[in-house]
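Need Sodium/potassium-transporting ATPase subunit beta's 3D structure for a figure. Predict it.
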Amino acid sequence: MAKDAEKGEWKEYIWNPRTREFLGRTASSWGLILLFYLVFYIFLAGLFALTMYVMLQTLDDHKPTWQDRLTTPGMVIQPESDETFEIIYNIQKTESWDMYTQALDKFLEPYNSTVQEQKNDECKPDEYFLQEDSADVKNNPKRSCQFKRDFLQDCSGLSDRYYGYQDGKPCIIIKMNRVIGMLPGKDGQAPFITCGAKREDTDKIGELMYFPPNGTFNLMYYPYYGKKAQVNYSQPLVAVKFLNITVNEDVNIECKINANNIPSGSERDKFAGRVSFKLRINTIN
Ligand SMILES: *[C@@H]1O[C@H](CO)[C@@H](O)[C@H](O)[C@H]1NC(C)=O
Ligand SMILES: *[C@@H]1O[C@H](CO)[C@@H](O)[C@H](O)[C@H]1NC(C)=O
Ligand SMILES: *[C@@H]1O[C@H](CO)[C@@H](O)[C@H](O)[C@H]1NC(C)=O
Ligand SMILES: *[C@@H]1O[C@H](CO)[C@@H](O)[C@H](O)[C@H]1NC(C)=O
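Structure prediction for Sodium/potassium-transporting ATPase subunit beta:
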């Protein structure tokens, strides 16, 4: 019958006892094919390993070979409020601002004098702390400068443990993101922070006070050499205290970095070099 013949043909294709062929090939033919692929893949793996090895030789562990030319660093505020960038509380309701002062306490812990003295150097202020590598000798690990929380004076949480939240004069702390190799400021002029209200709120913002004075990031904290080279680096901070902000109203605020060589709010990233948030302090009269 035709079906039987077909079945026989199939069987014979899989294993042909006459020619001793398996799937149409003899054992030695299969052997050669396997050998070929084995050699081929070993060759590919070797080539890959060699390329990786050569690539890795050219990399420096302590410095990125390639970096996006990020000229304008981002900024963040503390206390950070669940991504909404709103700080809203009621002076009389301790539980409404408790979380903010606690967040600041936690954030400032690494800036404790004892911690900073242990980890970092007292640097010469108002000039860059350059620690370049000389040709072959890598200058690692690099030292970092102390930033102690008492530099933030009234906003340090030391003299006023509630950072002014309890009397409607809250502190906000601003941190600029790290950018490896950035030398902000020029001609000895340190970068500084200024805050202002969005246009419709200009009458409501009241007087501000900055810590350290003038809201500057001292030049000695720059350049930053990267996490691996400069393990103990502490980012400098600027605190802003709102001395007479209008209560029971939303006040939209924007803080920005001023440095004659940092273009803020470039085309590429409108939020670079600036941070906006809403502050609303409620009170029961
Ligand atoms: C930081 O210092 C304050 C007092 O100055 C102390 O109460 C607190 O425990 C310290 N925190 C750390 C983490 O050292
Ligand atoms: C980093 O800090 C530790 C103490 O926490 C200190 O022993 C070490 O020397 C510091 N390293 C540098 C490079 O400053
Ligand atoms: C703050 O800025 C003013 C005016 O630019 C300057 O006279 C003063 O010395 C600065 N203060 C500090 C501590 O940098
Ligand atoms: C606080 O701001 C109000 C207006 O919002 C103003 O009338 C008052 O004089 C200011 N107080 C101080 C001490 O600047």
